[in-house]
Specification:
By secondary structure, the chain is α/β, with parallel strands linked by helices. 48% of the residues lie in helices and 16% in strands.
């Protein structure tokens, strides 16, 4: 259960859960409490059968401005740095491994750790004029959250090297054109478009969505023969499900399917 003062707020509408990073006074900059609550929220969503799809967004005018440097400066030790890195990597992996599809609604600026959170989601809807940047190398630090593979996976090695090494700002419109985001829309439409996509995803068979997410994320690590084998296993799992039978009935009866996850 979250409150309006929590660094992470969760609201559920129908089968869609919206997770809002809720530190608007700090442009939703990440902190240990925010990472901890985000992990807890994802854990709860994973086990909630009523939730079929997830939206991740930010409160106020930013999605997430990156690491909260003010917090990092207070009591900064090797131990605290290690704890921060470990928690950050864990929450990104939780996003990537969640069995349910996640749509990032990037409503404003997404910088550093904020942009990394968006990349850990399955689909990204971004405001056309949003300011985006991976600034880490310009500050003598390094990216996290699996960015060295999620970014390459989305836009290729050549462009990934450019964005990380030069650390320049780019826009939401640029992000969509290079394939980092799925769609760039006016800022006031970001959440609406994300909700429409999440609502549509929530109508799909949960097992099919889980399996396609898992196999696509594995694709960069396997050869063609392994991919064929994994697809065959996934197909057989789906064909043994009650949702496959429902899909057939719905097609015959010319109506939308009502998948239950069984």
């Amino acid at each position: 259960m979250t409150s309006a003062s929590s660094p992470v707020v969760v609201e559920t509408t129908g089968a869609v859960a919206t997770i809002t990073l809720n530190r608007p006074d700090r442009l939703n900059a990440v902190s240990l409490p925010l990472y901890d609550e985000l992990t807890d929220a994802l854990d709860a969503i994973e086990t909630d059968a009523t939730v079929r799809a997830v939206i991740l967004t930010g409160a106020g005018r930013a999605f997430c401005a990156g690491a909260d440097l003010k917090e990092h400066g207070a009591g900064d030790t090797a131990g605290s740095r290690g704890a921060y890195v470990e928690v950050g990597q864990r929450v990104h992996r939780r996003l990537q491994l969640l069995s349910k599809p996640i749509v990032a609604a990037v409503n404003g600026a997404a910088v550093g750790a904020g942009l990394e959170l968006a990349l850990a989601c399955d689909l990204v809807i971004v405001a056309e004029d949003a300011k985006l940047r991976f600034p880490e190398l310009a500050f003598g630090t390094f990216v996290g959250g699996g960015t060295t593979y999620t970014l390459v996976q989305r836009i290729g090695l050549t462009r990934a090297k450019e964005l990380l090494m030069l650390a320049d700002f780019f826009s939401g419109r640029d992000a969509a054109e290079m394939g980092l985001a799925n769609r760039a829309v006016p800022a006031d439409r970001v959440l609406g478009v994300a909700h429409s996509l999440a609502t549509e995803l929530a109508t799909r068979a949960p097992l099919s969505l889980t399996l396609v997410k898992r196999l696509l994320d594995k694709a960069r690590h396997v050869d063609a023969e392994t991919a064929l084998s994994l697809e065959a296993e996934a197909l057989l799992d789906c064909l043994a499900s009650a949702d496959w039978e429902e899909g057939q009935r719905a097609f015959s009866e010319k109506r939308p399917p009502r998948f239950t996850g069984d």
